[in-house]
Input
Amino acid sequence: MMQSRILYLFMAGLLVCGCSHKPAKDERPEDVQAKKMLQGVWIDEDDEDVVFRAKGDTIYYSDESVQPVYFKIVEDTLYLEGSHEMKYPIVKQAPHIFQFKNQDGDVVKLIKSSDPEDRRVFQHQKTVALNQNELIKRDTVVMAGGERYHSYVQINPTTYKVLKPTVNDDGVEVDNIYYDNIIHISLFHGAQQVYSHDFYKRDFSSVVDPDNLKQCILSDMILKGVDSKGITYQAVLQVPDNQTSYLVNTFISFQGRVRMSL
Output
């Protein structure tokens, strides 16, 4: 009986110790009144340019290429939850004044607009992508081992969003919107189809780090060479508005096998 009681106390002690090391969840409540005060259209105090509109729990930017973002106010901090959760200390807030520190520590000074024309900036606004949604087709005849092969490449625009974090003129991180592509490749030997496949960005995850791949657009697949065994295309995975790109040599054999190398 005594041994059973000692074992029970020992197990209870382990349970208490385990619970004491569990990280406490941050459950600080939102400042509902502060969120209510932020509703409306806000303009720059100096040049009176429209900056954003707060409606409900979302901030809409005047720049149509920027993704709307969920926001909340907890104590004296503005939280913007885009690709990354960003925190901006609030310096001053009143019904018609909103001031906060941006990423560089500079104070952004905004005033609430009372001009109906400023509200019209957001009427019927649709977020637009920065890149062109363009269908591109290429037909190429190549010779390999004395045989004629027909290479067909088609770049198809999609509605798959690629969000790229950037910093706007106010020093606030925002997500610019781009759209990815699907690239179809078909390879024919006469009337016989040797290969046919739709390439998605994810198809290159074995040679490009997934975190880097997430920010890329599959922008092109360029025919680079042919030999007796197959055709090599170069897939271009481009980080939008950036000089960074990943070039993946994609070899397709005449038996339909694929091999990739960065």
